[in-house]
Amino acid sequence: QVQLVESGGGLVQAGDSLTLACAASGHSFSSYTMGWFRQASGKERESVATISGSGRTAAYGDSVKGRFTVSRDNVKNTVSLQMNSLKPEDTAVYYCAADASGPGAVLTTRSPATMDYWGKGTQVTVSS
User: Fold this and answer.
1) Is the distance from CB of 17 to CB of 84 less than 8 angstroms?
2) For residue range 78-106, what is the model confidence (pLDDT) as tens digits?
3) CA–CA separation, 48 vs 69, rounded Å?
4) 51: which residues sit within 8 A by CB, 6+ positions away?
5) Are the C-beta atoms of residues 5 and 23 closer than 8 Å to each other?
6) How far is CA 75 from the centre of its chain?
7) 67-89 burial by CB neighbour count: b if 16+ within 10 A, else e?
8) How far is it between the farthest Cα atoms of the chain?
9) Measured between alpha carbons, how far is 112 from 98 in angstroms, rounded to an integer?
C-alpha cells in the first residue's frame, strides 16, 4: 500500500507557473505508475499526466500538452507536476494517484478508474 500527500497548490495569475509535488510513502515506489488528475467544480475528474514507474515515459491530457511536465524521483519517492502558462480553466483540485498494476511504458494517460491509491488533493486557482 502507498500513501500519497500532495503539496504546492495555491492562487496564481494567468500565465504564471506552479509546481505541484506528491510525496509517497510505502514500498516499491518505482513499481507504481503515477498520475496527476484534476477535478474542477461541477466537472468530472480528468487525467492530466501519467508517468511510468521508471520515469522514462509519460503521457499528457490534450488540454495541458506543451504546458505541463510530469517527473518523478524514485530515490526520494516523489512525483512532480510542473505547470507553465497557467490558464483560468486550469483551476481545479489536483490529485496524485498510483496504479499498482505494475511497471510498464506509458503510452496514454490512465483513467481515474484504473488508479488504486489517491492523495487528498491540493487546490490550484488561476485568476484572469
Assistant:
1) yes
2) 999 999 999 999 999 999 999 988 778 88
3) 10
4) 33, 34, 35, 57, 58, 70, 71, 72, 79, 106
5) yes
6) 18
7) ebbbebebeebbbbbebeebeee
8) 41
9) 10
Cβ atoms of 42 and 93 closer than 8 Å = no
Nearest Cα residue to 115 out of 35, 42, 21 = 35
* Cα gap 121→105, rounded to integer Å: 25
Q: Are 60 and 70 in contact (CB under 8 A)?
A: yes
| Residues 39/95, Cβ–Cβ less than 8 Å | yes
Q: Report the DSSP beta bridge partners of residue 118.
A: 97
Contact 92, 39 (CB under 8 A): yes
Given pLDDT bands bounded at 50, 70 and 90, which one contains residue 26?
Answer: confident
